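Hi everyone, sorry if this is the wrong subforum. Our group has a chain we'd like a structural model of before ordering constructs, and none of us has done structure prediction before. Sequence below.
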Amino acid sequence: MDKIGDFYGSHRVISPKGLLPQAADVINNDPEICDNEILIDVIALQPTATAFHTLKEKYGDDEEKIKKAIFDIVEKKGKFQDPVTKSGGMLIGVVKKIGKDIKKNRKLNIGDKIATLVSLSLTPLKIYSIEKINLDTEQVFCHADAVIFESGLYTNIPDDLGQELSLAIMDVAGAPAQVAINAKSGDTVCVLGAGKAGLLSLAEAKKRVAPHGKVVCLEYSEKQCKLVKELNLADYVINVNAQEPQKTYEKYMEETGGVLADLTVSTVNVPETELSAILVTKNSGRIYFFTMSTNFVKASLGAEGAGKYTTMVLGAGYYPGHDEITYNIVRENDELRQYFINRYCKNNC
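Answer:
Right subforum, don't worry. Here is the predicted structure as tokens:
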């Protein structure tokens, strides 16, 4: 008998009933798939920076405790989801089984290596063992099965970039894509944070605002500030603590000569940075809160209190074609690509 699941995966929800998988507390992670699902043999997970930050705050650099915490979350919920921010991440793996209804509509073959473009917070996941966690790159190498719904998004891992580099950058592909579609020549673009998402966003901003626009990086780490300068990704690199909005605003104004941003992208993985993003953005500007640590009540009320009417956008991780936009950033920027290879690729990349 044919077995068809709901397009959005609601058939996998155990509790509370009536919700979709991301909002649900517990979902069914049985690897027996419906005719409109895809089964993935997982190679590695890439939790969001925010989710991994939560784990490291609690367990430090104790790999075994972090392994157990991840395993326990998945055992309890049927998916990986940070209990605090509710964020997840993404994974790479090999297509293990394809539902017969999927075969009719997608160019996909068993054995294809793919990266998922939907959150782990809604992806049915069954972990059998965790081999290793790279605490530096925040990647989790494991033996596991995962399920993609009919609505699920994924991208084939390109041969020229390899699995480890693709795993690193696909987790944050939504941020540079928003820069690509919103930044234009002559704009001033400000990026908060110089982690993966920040570096990719800065690189895309430099491309989009040329030849007369300016790119500003606000970053807490002196090491990352130095990196941004070495990679020539920003016109202004300002070492600030974005959790101190008044000081951040003052340093920004001093360094830029008072030119507020047309577009601001927040990629930081710590809370209490919303007002810094708001203050450095002009009234007619746009703020994209990519980070899952954002408190949208604080952002909304903070903007109101500051008398700002900027457009503030929720950090949806998906935009059509965002995978290719991000892949092309590292293809076009040799120095940034080499940095990512050195940082994330232990094998061939």
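For your construct planning: The chain has a mean pLDDT of 93. The first strand starts at residue 13 and ends at 15.
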